[in-house]
């Protein structure tokens, strides 16, 4: 991409991606996400939740739910800022949450059985059967990331940077008719190949390689064309 669009180098030279301003904006955004996650979870779990047997769910239920909501928010933010999706990106972002959801029941089953993290005993059954748990996982990350999504949509649609335009060209296979660096390099290679061919052009063999044979050029010069009998009649 940098060969096709050399102007993208200017973004790194201008330090456009990491500045003190961008650092503090990211810091403020993290504080905003934290306040939203904590505040909304307090509202959803206000007065504690009651289970089917009448017992309270407890703060371990709330803490585990909030942790999973935070994890989804962080992974969603990482997905929003990712410019390139590969198998490693998929393994790191969706794969992290899938791994957590698989590991949590295993840990909640094994840890209390060997004498630690006894608070997790039976918590998975409570989580999986509670509608507030699913509502929290869906609602809180959406509330946190809706502002980030709107801002990214606005930037890419109305104030795109140069690398945004290059990404759109590649994504939708839009033809770019401007001269490209690789085309220029191919043209240079062709010119050099032609020059080498002209320099090395010659006969594959010589008629005078055998010293015993008479030189053809000397024989032609010795032929006297001024005499009429020497001229071919054509008949």
UniProtKB/TrEMBL annotation:
The main location class comes to membrane
Concerning Pfam families, the annotation shows: PhoLip_ATPase_C
For the keyword Nuclease, the answer is no
* Cell compartments where the protein resides: Membrane
Give the range the annotation lists for the signal sequence.
Answer: none
Q: Which domain of life is it from?
A: Eukaryota
Its EC top class is hydrolase
User: What topology does it adopt in the membrane?
Assistant: Multi-pass membrane protein
Which SUPFAM superfamilies does the UniProt entry name for this protein? Calcium ATPase, transmembrane domain M
What's one GO-annotated cellular component? trans-Golgi network
Alphabetical GO biological process terms: endocytic recycling; phospholipid translocation; post-Golgi vesicle-mediated transport
- According to its UniProt record, the EC number is 3.6.3.1
Q: Identify the keywords attached in UniProt to this record, alphabetized.
A: Hydrolase, Magnesium, Membrane, Metal-binding, Transmembrane, Transmembrane helix
The P-type ATPase C-terminal domain extends over 2-160
- The residues that cross the membrane are 23-47, 59-76, 88-111, 131-150
| An example molecular function term from Gene Ontology annotations | ATPase-coupled intramembrane lipid transporter activity
Full protein name: Phospholipid-translocating ATPase
Species the sequence originates in = Thanatephorus cucumeris (strain AG1-IB / isolate 7/3/14) (Lettuce bottom rot fungus)
């Amino acid at each position: 991409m940098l060969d096709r669009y050399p102007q993208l180098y200017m973004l790194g030279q201008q330090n456009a991606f990491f500045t003190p301003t961008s650092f503090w904006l990211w810091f403020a955004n993290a504080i905003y996400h934290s306040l939203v996650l904590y505040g909304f979870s307090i509202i959803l779990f206000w007065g504690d939740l009651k289970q089917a047997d009448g017992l309270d769910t407890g703060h371990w239920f709330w803490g585990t739910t909030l942790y999973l909501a935070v994890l989804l928010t962080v992974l969603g933010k990482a997905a929003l800022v990712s410019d390139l999706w590969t198998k490693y990106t998929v393994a790191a972002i969706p794969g992290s949450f899938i791994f957590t959801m698989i590991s949590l029941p295993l840990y909640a089953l094994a840890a209390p059985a060997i004498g630690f993290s006894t608070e997790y005993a039976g918590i998975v059954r409570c989580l999986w059967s509670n509608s507030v748990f699913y509502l929290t996982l869906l609602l809180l990350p959406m509330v946190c990331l809706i502002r980030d999504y709107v801002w990214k949509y606005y930037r890419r649609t109305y104030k795109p940077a140069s690398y945004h335009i290059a990404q759109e060209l590649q994504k939708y296979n839009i033809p770019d008719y401007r001269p490209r660096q690789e085309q220029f390099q191919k043209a240079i290679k062709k010119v050099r190949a032609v020059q080498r061919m002209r320099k090395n052009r010659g006969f594959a063999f010589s008629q005078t390689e055998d010293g015993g044979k008479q030189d053809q050029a000397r024989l032609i010069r010795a032929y006297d064309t001024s005499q009429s009998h020497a001229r071919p009649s054509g008949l």
